[in-house]
Design brief:
mainly alpha; membrane; about 0% strand; 12 helices; transmembrane helix; transmembrane; AA-permease/SLC12A_dom; globular
Length: about 270
């Protein structure tokens, strides 16, 4: 009878860990399926369009309740932390100019299992962000139509139905293509939202009451620090820029420019609108 070797073979957990943490190189095909049409300006507009909206119009009101006038410091802390994250995104997107965003970066750096966890987190993040944006937009649209036309809008469907119709409309626009769909429609939406933000800033400057700014920290510093995490939701649009890596003309140059400019513009609008 043969005697078994005293040296144990690779265990199940060791093999599983090796498979989970294995890394693969990312290769770009010479025959690209996506057409490169996006410039640095288009990428900047994509980042601004993904942030300006619910991030400024909704999060500001939510964060102001527990913090009071100190909400501006919550946005400041969120903006500072987002700057470091944006610089990391810019560096990685320049080195790995392939669509996939943070999932792909984790895949290259840490392996498949870590990339899977981060990818699931990103999916939840994007779905929640899209749901908040579309729900707030549908609610604003419903209230605006009822204020403008009054009882004439009895036929108006519920907010959930309006949200579903808007999602279908945006899906059809994206299906048209990058040149005719994404670039033109996103540009119009971004300029429209920026115009609304500027209008709110200009009109709000005439209604400022200094008495409302005292005390600055009515509930202490704790809520300011905790709500800074919520305020960071207003700056997540720069991560969307990296998903268009394979559709921009010069990804090594345009991606860092689009990420940095979109974050700075969103931070400026957030602070000015407060």
């Amino acid at each position: 009878m043969s005697q078994r070797s005293s040296e144990p073979g690779p265990s199940y957990w060791r093999v599983s860990l090796a498979l989970a943490l294995r890394k693969r190189s990312v290769e770009t095909s010479e025959t690209e399926a996506l057409q490169r049409r996006l410039t640095a300006l288009d990428l900047t507009l994509i980042g601004v369009g993904a942030s300006v909206g619910a991030g400024i119009f909704v999060i500001t009101g939510i964060a102001a309740k527990p913090t009071g006038p100190a909400v501006c410091f919550s946005f400041l802390l969120a903006g500072i932390s987002s700057i470091f994250s944006a610089l990391c995104y810019a560096e990685l997107s320049a080195r790995i100019p392939v669509s996939g965003s943070v999932y792909l970066y984790a895949f290259v750096a840490f392996g498949e299992f870590i990339a899977l966890l981060i990818g699931l987190n990103v999916l939840v993040d994007y779905h929640v962000g899209a749901a908040v944006n579309i729900a707030s937009c549908a609610l604003y649209l419903e209230k605006t139509l009822r204020l403008m036309f009054g009882d004439v809008c009895v036929w108006l469907p519920s907010t959930q139905v309006i949200s579903l119709l808007m999602v279908l409309l945006l899906t059809c626009i994206l299906s048209v293509g990058v040149e005719n769909g994404l670039k033109r429609v996103n540009g119009l939406l971004v300029f429209g939202k920026v115009g609304i933000v500027l209008l709110v800033i200009v009109v709000g400057c005439t209604k400022v009451q200094p008495t409302n700014l005292s005390p600055v920290f009515p509930f202490g510093v704790g809520p300011v620090l905790s709500m800074s995490a919520t305020c960071s939701f207003s700056f997540i649009g720069f991560g969307t820029v990296t998903n268009a890596a394979e559709e921009c003309i010069n990804p090594h140059r345009d991606l860092p420019i689009g990420i940095t400019l979109s974050l700075l513009i969103c931070a400026l609008f957030a602070w000015a609108s407060i």
